[in-house]
Amino acid sequence: MSCNAKKDPNGTWRIQYRWTDWTGTKKKSQKRGFKTKKEAEEWYAHFMLQQSSDPTMMLADFWEIYKADMEKRLRKTTIKQKEYVMNDKILPYFGKTPINEITAPMIRKWQGEMMEKGFKPTYLKTIHNQLSAILNYAVNFYDLRSNPCRKAGSMGKSKADERPYWTLEEFQEFSDAIMDKQDSWIAFQILFWTGMRIGELLALQVKDIDFEQGTITVDESLTRLDGE
Known about the structure:
Blueprint lengths: L1 E6 L5 E8 L5 E9 L2 H15 L7 H12 L5 H19 L9 H13 L4 H21 L6 H5 L15 H10 L4 H13 L3 H5 L6 E2 L4 E2 L12
Antiparallel strand pairs: 1-2, 2-3, 4-5
């Protein structure tokens, strides 16, 4: 594996390099557009680190490898959820730590800080599961000896406490109270009688409703991503 940084006529730098992919195939490639030689060489060092099965890389670097693989296997909405949890809850604590140096006591301390923030138990479980998932990935594919999340134990819980629900009489009373707000009345009628989720309701189109058969086809859900 070798590299050679060269300056192009337009003043930017490119890096030419040889490398061996995961199948053992030797490849030659290059990347252009770097402002400095140092920037080009740093990119190459980062690239080669991502190609290695090395558990000494920092979690922030390993997250990019994990995400690139998961983007081929998971829905965009799921990836966005993972990105938010990683960027907001995990990487600020562990991003600069080599994955093989993350310990159970470190995780316990992090869990304590998360629990002090007042998150719901189910969300705490989601946050913990994301850290555990990326470390499991490192165990399975990047020679990490063990997942410290197992020794640290989990936090939160998988299922929310049972929520109170309306009786038919209570719903009818509510329905009568909003009778003058036609759009809201129709929306709540659909939600109550079909069990539809709000995202599914918002994604409904006229073509999804068969008035002759009295059926509604639900095959999409509206989800907010990046504020849109």
